Amino acid sequence: MSALERHFGYHHFRPGQAEAVNAVLAGRDTLVVMPTGAGKSLIYQLPALALPGLTLVVSPLVALMKDQVDHLVALGKPATYINSSLPAEEQIARVERVSQGEYKLVYVAPERLRNRVFLQALLEGKVSRAAVDEAHCISQWGHDFRPDYLSLGQVIAHLGHPPVAALTATATLRVQDDIIQRLGLRDPLRLVTGFNRPNLYLEVRPAPDDASKLRDISTLLDSDPGPAIIYTGTRKDAETVSQFLAGLGIASAFYHAGLDPDTRRRVQDDFMQDKARVIVATNAFGMGVDKPDIRLVVHHSLPSSLEAYYQEAGRAGRDDLPAHCVLLYAPKDRSLQEWFIENDAPNQYELRNLLGTLRRFARDNQVRISDAELARSTRLPDVKLRVGLSQLAQLGAIVHLGDDLGTMRFEVQPNALDFDLAPAAAEVAERRAHKREKLAQMVAYAEATTCRRRFILDYFGDPGAPEAARCCDVCQAQAQTPMTAYAAFKAGVPAEEGATLVTRPASTTAEWTLLIILEAVKSLAHGIGRVKLAQMLAGSRAATLGQLTKHRLYGKLSFVGLAPLQTTIDQLVTAGYLKLVGVETPQVILTPRGASALRARAAISLPAFEPDGRGLPLDQKH
Ligand code: ADP
Ligand code: MG
Question: Is the CB of 38 under 6 A from ligand 1?
Fold first, then answer.
């Protein structure tokens, strides 16, 4: 059995995984740029479990690390996270276990790495690999810059430079270079792959005003059944759109950073458990949300960049079944984004005020202060505060000392108030120019008259082909021109069927057969042995079937034949739609992927396709 199967129960690597895993195992620094849902975690988790010593994982969000660690622990792996959501004694206990080498993986947020006790524990615990997740956060050119990430290069050096895997879903070439330089990666393997998501249908709809946006949203929700996310540009819009949907009787909820953590958790749980079908959210929602069956992602207004857009839209269809991504585009939306760009950093006056506040709180040039208190005293919003502190540190006016449980500690230069703050302003100006450029690319996507998929692949530097069952509104419009109808005619397809060719609900007998198998498994909630399942569907007279001969699907697939049915069931297991649980008498059950396929009545295609009659195609059998 392979390590992949033994540790995770997966049968195959996804594209790009094997190459990256091998690089990490071999001790080579690695930069992986693969889209959300591609399976980047495995790239450091598998080596972590296979190698001696500890893998340090840096991850920006508490929710994100908790999900991953829960998953690993459920698989029986020695993994943990340490963050401020835990009681202090628990943090201390976990740090202690790190130093004693009791874990294979430890997840932390970057600010934890300023904690001296923790760093000491890492040195004692023997870090064999470091992984930096969401590595684009280190680059001020990335869309989610976190100044806390800037110290990672030093920390890695301090740990004796264990091989590093940096992973992100969103990095243009410039951001990739920035990550490599700031983390100090040495001759890294750069792997940029997998940006094409063939199951996503990409669409941009002109929607000049709010009323037409709401109309579009309601029609889209009617025609794309299933869970959906609607991203809005502001918190207020999230609430308004959610109320509109509630008025239509659609189970929806809103989510944004202005809600308290408990409410956010509850809203997210409701969505995960299908209690809310639609979530209307700002970009605060999504990191670490691993819901496979999202069928529709609508952007109510223009995102700040194509990375941000594709990351959010890419949350649709992680189960690889058809899903729909729609950008509602009003040219005037651009101005909201421009406003964000002009307000992403403190101005010189605000920066001076921040410095003055720190100076005032200083005793013997040292400040101890909580985030909340500093925000209150300076009246600066979170973004400006974080950026401002990082600017002051870069200018040398303050030095960030280690933090202790929720309190930041700084040393403030005695002559801090004499510092020239102009260089910080110059840097802000440069960054803003860059953001405007990205916004321009986003607008170019929205207004493109060429294939949207090709546009995205080019943007990310992915050399792959823009293949898809249903590509985008531009390609679709072209496919409906007489020219393509002619091409279809030449290919022997009746003209009126040309349009249905590009959709992917189940239509052939073979496709329906697969759905019937899934349906049968679903109806047998306690599972069923694979042989019995085939016998029941084939209408076998075997005495062991008992009550199953009365099942509504008994004999339903008799035209397929017993042996091909068994093969097909096995293929559904291999492809992840079904799985076998239990050791002595394994039972077939439905996976989330299988459940989604069934709900969407989707056309499933099985890769292990055997034309010699032992498996599919079933069409030829009747
Ligand atoms: P990313 O970090 O790239 O967004 P994740 O690492 O969170 O993606 O993985 C997304 C999902 O894919 C997870 O549910 C994970 O368990 C699953 N997954 C990863 N690798 C494989 C594989 N080789 N086979 C099947 N499922 C996989
Ligand atoms: Mg990830």
Answer: yes
Q: What is the pLDDT of residues 24-42, one digit of tens each?
A: 999 999 999 998 778 999 9
CATH topology of domain 480-620: Arc Repressor Mutant, subunit A (1.10.10)
Residue-wise pLDDT for 370-407, tens only, equals: 988 999 999 998 889 988 998 999 899 999 887 777 78
Tens of pLDDT, residue by residue over 45-100, are: 999 999 999 999 999 888 788 889 999 999 999 999 999 889 999 999 999 999 99
Number of the ligand closest to the Cα of 3: 1
445 lines ligand 1 (CB under 6 A): no
Q: Return the residue matching tokens 């037409």.
A: 212
Q: Which ligand neighbours the alpha carbon of 14 most closely? A: 1
Cα 46 to middle of ligand 1, angstroms: 12
What whole-number distance in Å separates Cα of residue 535 and Cα of residue 548? 9
In whole angstroms, give the CA distance from residue 322 to residue 395.
50
Please tell me the distance between residue 290's alpha carbon and the centre of ligand 1 in angstroms.
9
Query: Is the separation of the CB atoms in 530 and 570 below 8 Å?
Result: yes
Ligand 2 centre distance from Cα of residue 34 (Å): 9
Q: Is the C-beta atom of 46 inside 6 A of ligand 1? A: no
Tell me the residue ranges of DSSP E strands in 169-302.
189-192, 200-206, 228-231, 252-255, 278-281, 296-299
The percentage of the chain sitting over the pLDDT mark of 90, rounded to a whole number, equals 56
Q: How far is the CA of 552 from the centre of ligand 1 (A)?
A: 36
Residue 506 token pair: 């189940």
HSE (CB half, 13 Å, CA atoms) of 478? 10
Confirm or reject: Cβ of 34 under 6 Å from ligand 1: yes
| CATH architecture for the domain at 343-427 | Orthogonal Bundle (1.10)
Closest approach atom of ligand 1 to CA 43: 6
According to the per-residue pLDDT averaged within each range, which of 1-15, 93-107, 161-175, 369-383 is highest? 93-107
For residue 233, pLDDT beyond 60: yes
Name the residue with the closest Cα to ligand 1, atom 20: 39
Judged by its nearest atom, the ligand closest to the C-alpha of residue 38 is: 1
Q: At the fourth CATH level, which superfamily is domain 200-333+448-459?
A: P-loop containing nucleotide triphosphate hydrolases (3.40.50.300)
pTM of the model: 0.60
Q: Is the CB of 288 under 6 A from ligand 1?
A: no
Residue nearest to atom 21 of ligand 1 (CA): 39
Domain boundaries, the chain: 3-192, 200-333+448-459, 343-427, 480-620
Residue 505 token pair: 């609900």
Domains 200-333+448-459 and 343-427 share a fold: no
How does the average pLDDT of the chain come out, rounded? Answer: 87
Give the closest residue (by CA) to ligand 1 atom 9.
39
Using the predicted structure, report yes or no on whether residue 490 has a pLDDT greater than 60.
no
Minimum CA distance residue for ligand 1 atom 15 = 39
Task: Answer yes or no: is the C-beta of 10 below 6 A from any ligand 1 atom.
Answer: yes
75 phi/psi in degrees, rounded to 5: -85, 5
**Domain 3-192: which CATH class?**
alpha beta
Give mean pLDDT, residues 528-537: 91
One-letter amino acid of 251: A
Residue 521, SS3 per DSSP: helix
Q: For residue 35, which atom of ligand 1 is closest to its CA?
A: 3
| Cα dihedral across residues 267, 268, 274, 276: positive or negative | positive
pLDDT at 495 over 60: no
Nearest CA to ligand 1 atom 2: 40
> In Å, how far from its chain's centre is CA 345?
27
